[in-house]
Fold this sequence. Notes:
This protein is α/β, with parallel strands linked by helices. It has helices at 14-32, 34-44, 47-51, 55-67, 81-132, 138-152, 159-163, 175-185, 203-216, 261-266, 275-278, 294-306, 325-333, 354-357, 386-393, and strands at residues 193-196, 228-232, 249-252, 270-273, 283-287, 308-309, 335-336, 340-345, 361-364, 372-377, 398-400, 403-406, 418-424. It folds into three domains: 1-154, no CATH class; 174-364, Rossmann fold (3-Layer(aba) Sandwich); 372-424, no CATH class. The relative contact order is 0.10.
Amino acid sequence: MTRKTTDFPGANSEELLKRRIGAMFSFLASVYGPETLVLKAGKLGALKGMKSHDLLQQVVALQKVVYEDPTIGASLSIDEIPGILEDCQEEIADHIARHSIEQEIEDLVSRKMQEKHEEYLKDIKKEILLDNSSPETEQTQKKLKTLVKLEKRSLSRSALTILRPRSLKHIVGQDRAIDALLAKIASPYPQHVILYGPPGIGKTSAARLVLQESKKLPFSPFARKAPFIETDGSTLRWDPREITNPLLGSVHDPIYQGARRDFADGGVPEPKLGLVTAATGGVLFIDEIGEMDPLLQNKLLKVLEDKRVFFDSSYYDPDDPRVPEYVKRLFSQGAPADFVLVGATTRDPEEISPALRSRCAEVALSLLTAPFTIFTIWAGVSASKNTSAHLDRSAGLISSGSLVVAPTSTKSAGAPWLNSRFTYSGTRGSSGS
Length: 433
């Protein structure tokens, strides 16, 4: 704390030393403020020394104030005073430097806090405006009117819509296949099934109608509201990183652009349920299942075995209090995926994955090769409510794509809404899918 100093002219002059001490006290008063300096000196026991005319007492008082140490004593000599004053000057300089840096940091913190406060106020104002204002604008209203006008435009009813089978009895020529499909699905222990057949033969309609019939049986495991979820294996797109997987489900991590804002801000991942969960308790129908990605097929087989879908994310923390309970349940227990898989394909059995075939029963819808009389629908026929009734009442009529098929013995007089009749001897499916 003290040090020797070399002599210089007037350095040890008592009057000069008193002036230096007085200048230091004046500087400290400008730094702390006069009142603060007096209070500070009083707490440190230096107030009496500041008012004293004794040089040694003044030096001791200065040391107590500068070093903020009330225990400093008066055991010093005149020769040590210049060194002590230089030490005090350096300490004051260090204090001023620290105070300046602290002040800059405080100013920076204050600015940041002010910016955050202003941003917070802006967000609050936006929320209030959103709560009190309508999302509709002049442009959105205009687009809505255009959409409503487009909805009113329509072509004549599609023949496929009219002729699509509405019950199993409307599917003609596939008795063996329908019975086999019913035996596999309409059972207390339904099986997964692969349906083989050419395009348009009615695989989708058969699966949907078999589920409807199964619901009517007393021993059926399917409830009245059992879902029939339909998708196309050739159009299923997924990301191997599990960012998106509409079939099995995926996890939207906080960094994902589709993540909910409240979850993203809290760093919480959100599982998104897939079609396998939506089909729980019913049938998941995958058309063109042979076109699915092989890796996605393997993942689907795992779900068929576990009857659950499990999710994983490096962002998930089970101890995070911000994680909702349903998210914790999905990560800890997974999502249910208990359904019957019905896959349809136009491929040959040899082209389907052996692993998939080993877990499914196989049913083939056969081609209709017997001679049939095909009637084209009269171009001017009215799409009235009775059209479907005409189709049902016309004996032997079978719907086949956009054509109505009947045995060759059917008389055209029984169907006056038909324009002409001719014999078709080629191969044709039984119903549109």
